[in-house]
Design brief:
about 0% helix; mainly beta; SbsA Ig-like domain-containing protein; signal; five-stranded antiparallel sheet; about 325 residues; Jelly Rolls; Immunoglobulin-like; six-stranded antiparallel sheet
Length: about 325
Amino acid sequence: MKKIILTALMLALIFSVAWANRITLSADSEGRIVVTDGDSGAIPVPPLGEHNTGEDGEGELLWDDGVMDEYWEDGYNRAVQFIAPVDCHLITGLVYQEDDGILYTPYYFAVYGDADGVPGEELGGVMAVGDAHNGWDEINLISVGIALTEGDVFYGAVIKNGGEFPYLCADTTEPIHGNFYNEPSQMEWVFDETSNLMLRVVVDDDVAGPYTENPNPAPGDSGVHGDVTLSFEIHDENHSVTRDSIIVMVAGQIVTDKCTISQASMDGSFLVTFKPEKEFIPGDVYVFWYAEDELGNGDDDTWYFTVDEFSDDSATEDTSWGVIKEKF
């Protein structure tokens, strides 16, 4: 699986003081991506992903430098703009807290799509509570199920929860990407070019679904006896397979509830076994399954084996398991 190298794909959208004009992208003499906002000239784009290139395909998108210069307690909702560097899933939100920051204060971490340069439709979100430590508050977003396409503009946001609102930290070191804010009672987002809100997101470029291992009978096998017990494993390269997503079809019948589905290993793979109520009659028997991993990546597989002999005299052409002569 290829690694994300976010620093090589650090495309971004930045807005002028009026936040209405899109910038242009170009490369300087050293090959770095720079932006031009029409007023300040070329500004180096801060890295999107200092802690990326892990073999697990995860990358951290960020604008701040990791050092808090100020914090706010103004009660505004705030959002940071990002761009998906590759096709990926959003898996983690990060909000920085320090000292009297957001300790124990509940808030809503939301993700928005883009609406002409400002946060638009909500894509999902989760409630979060600041931990009692200095550092990054990690919000698990896997269950929200947000899939992004390369180039998608989106926003991570901290939204006020009822009457409480967390202190939000920021760095004021150049270059400034800025952030958006609004009063909870208003819908209009305003661009703030004075600082970088310390809010980051982590994406995972794994978009491949589960796959088959150790099928028995093997695909294309012939000479199989009709009383065979079918078995195969469902694996995923980087994430656990979701047990409840598995669907199994044999000889044209959905047999998921008649299968034994057990954990095959600690990596979240499953062993599927199926014994028909009656023997398969001679002919091609097709097997189909569908499953998803915990990120929501789905895939399926189909193969067949050939039954050449059987011993059950009650097995007839209209057996409930039948024989399918063509792929479904």
